[in-house]
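Annual report, structural modelling task.

Input specification for the NAP complex:
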Amino acid sequence: MIKIGLLGIGTVGSGVYEIINSETFRNSIDENITISKILVRNINKERNSKYPKDIFTDDPKEIIDNPEIDIVIEVMGGINPAYKYITKALNNKKHVVTANKELVSIYLDELSEKAYENNLGFLFEASVAGGIPIIKPLTKLSKINDIKEIKGILNGTTNFILTKMIDENLSFDDALSLAKDLGYAEADPTNDIEGFDVLRKLAILSTIAFKSKIELKDILCRGIKSIKKEDIIFFKKLRLKIKLVANAIKENNKFSSVVEPMLVNENSTLSTVKDAFNIVSVTGNQVGELNFYGQGAGKSPTANAVISDVVDIINKDFDYSLYKEKNVSSVNTKLFSGRYYLRISEDIKNSEVFNRLKKFNIKYEILSNKDLALVTEHIPANVMEDFIKSMDFKGNDYCYVRIDGALETMKSKEAAITII
Ligand code: NAP
Ligand code: HSE
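The model returned the following structure:
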């Protein structure tokens, strides 16, 4: 009998409980497997009557220090006390499975090493891209390939919000509230909207792909908060779609990594990814480009990823990859370039913007003069970042978005004529 201790039973935890007790899963596993204890924050909260009454505890020791428990599944979220519980569980010789990207993005090296020293599994498939199997295939790919690029949509909530704003004309707040109801959003949705959730996921993927511990601070991160309905109207006219994109590129031993809203051609693969779906594209020198696509958030897809780790632990099919080395160094945004859409609120004098663009030697074409909107020529990303910093914009004063490379051939003049 394999005994599992579950830390948390919210959106993901309840899905894990359902799969473990499903007939399909029980019939496919040779071993008997059971969830014997569930840690919750609020023991008095009313819970579904399907759970045995004595299964809940608010004392972590009943799981972490319980010699009968073989596998701890952490689906609580947050750094502490999750980090403390996972460390203790590994010290107490329990395998650990977690969906917690916030924690994995910081402690991946330390916890993998601890698991290695104790001959245990520390698996985190559900921490990136929900139901999409990506951690295990990427780990294998990185052993065979020199991975050059990772690019994708890694957040279900923001992709859902943008899809609803574009296709159904919903307001940002209404779309977010729907995403919360569907269990896609983080406990604090700021993490989704500001791009921090994608930042963490990209740090995890880059660490595995580049076989080097990638720090969060080395990834430039911008979310979708500054995008207004007016911008979406412009994008539609330009036949572009806005997506929150994660992108990491490696050249020799240097890498650039960003999380940013990006404008993609409406016929591109990225623009076909709708609602809470995610996509991860990996390019390696041997395999070429591979695309992984599926549901990026929500109860059952995420629980499916957690259970796939449990199965790997039962089958002793886990890899001891360690990520301590610093094989690559960050060159900020230097490896990226493109044309940029820039919109500036009417409170800021156009002449100030034009003068500053001239100072940075950035050429542009104007789309609108009211709320000033323009498209720059193709420029290095670091030049655009320096220009933006120099303007000292506040809050929603502005919005700037890189146009994906696929649009290089678009004649900007034609776009301008269409818009004005
Ligand atoms: P959730 O619905 O908010 O559930 C969290 C659960 O953990 C609740 O049962 C809560 O107890 C318990 N908990 C929280 N803090 C606790 C503490 N200090 N001590 C004891 N119990 C505690 O969260 P979720 O959406 O399932 O997400 C869980 C984790 O999975 C997070 O790391 C998240 O980033 C990750 N994840 C989520 C998704 C998704 O689609 N939702 C997808 C991939 C990964 P109570 O029931 O008493 O409140
Ligand atoms: N909040 C996350 C998302 C959950 O929307 O993608 C899945 O990691």
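Residues 135-295 form a domain with the Dihydrodipicolinate Reductase; domain 2 fold (CATH 3.30.360.10).
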